[in-house]
Amino acid sequence: MEHHVEPSALGMDAAGWVSLAMIVLLAIMVWKKVPALIAGGLDKKIADIRAQLDEAASLRAEAEKLRGEYQAKVKAAEGEAAAMRARAEEEAEAILAKAKSDTSDLIARRQKMAEDRIGAAERAALAEVREKAATAATAAAASLIADKHDRATDKALIDKTISTLG
Known about the structure:
The structure is a single chain. 89% of the residues lie in helices and 0% in strands. By secondary structure, the protein is mostly helical. It has a domain at 14-127.
């Protein structure tokens, strides 16, 4: 087996040079305050995230509050709608009852009017019958008197009536 020789420069092998380069890089980073910049950037990012979380929590609380308000408004609106419906039903029942009452009153008035008309017609017919009967009786009496009495009988009747008066 052959022995392999490792390259070296200034007494350091490859691993030494990589270690030295890393140390120099880290020293430059510390000297330029890179860790502080990284920490500052991370702190700023953390602060931004916290602000966003706080804003989100605030928005959520506001949304919950609005949700509660809207739920209360919906319940109130439902209550108002139920009350309006109940009032409408009561009004409809009252209107229906009034319509029934008005109909009954109208029927009673119409019936009374019909009865009054019938009564008036009966009275008119009765008066007409009486008038015709009186006319017929007068005509019959005139006919009988004309047939049964002459001048002499009339004179005797008048004289008798005058003597009873005096």
